[in-house]
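Researcher: Please translate sequence to structure tokens.
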Amino acid sequence: MRTTTKILIALLVMAITQSCISYKFNGAALDYNKYKTVSFGNIPIRAALVYPPLQQLFQNKLQDVVTQQTRLQQIDNPNSDLRFEGEITNYSLSPQAVGENAYATRTRLTISVRIRYIDNVNDALSNDVTVSAYRDFDSNQLLIDVQDQLCEEISAELVDLIFNQTVGNW
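Model: Translation complete:
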């Protein structure tokens, strides 16, 4: 009886584990019978303050997330089933916390992106999305020392927001 119970428990655990593993929630709400391809336009920086590596970093993150979390084939054709294009509209620094000497003790880096999500299969689902994200850092640090890490983190958050508001259809 003990062996039978152990076997039943093991089978139950395997069934639960396999059902959990086979279910992958990535937020994509696409009918893959209709949507096969995706393309990306350039996403230039149109902000007053420009950090040149941000353009490529952001574009790569967006392409990676969309192609890794969907089954869409990336093509270089603006007439693809889905298309992402837009611009980085804001890259700014602002003081956040003032210390006892009236100088900022924290600085905020904010990045905003406007994305045009073009659905060539169902135009009603096309969308124009503007998202912003920020990270604070100690004002005693130089921006040049933290800029790459902050841009990496902010870009990842922006891409998640864009994915959820477009392909995720949230």
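Researcher: Any highlights?
Model: The radius of gyration is 22 Å.
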